[in-house]
Amino acid sequence: MNHEGLVREAVREYNADLATKGWVAIAMGVLTSLLVYVIVLVICFFFFCLSAAPWYLVGTVIFGIFFGVSWWSCSRGVDAIEGVTPVVEDDLGAMKLATLVTGLPLSPLHTVAGAAGLVMHGPASILEGRSMLASLLPADEATIKGAAAVLASLLEDKTIVVEAINPKMLAFLLVRTGLARPDRKGSTSLVATIKAREGGRV
Question: Is 10 contained in some domain?
Answer without folding.
Answer: no
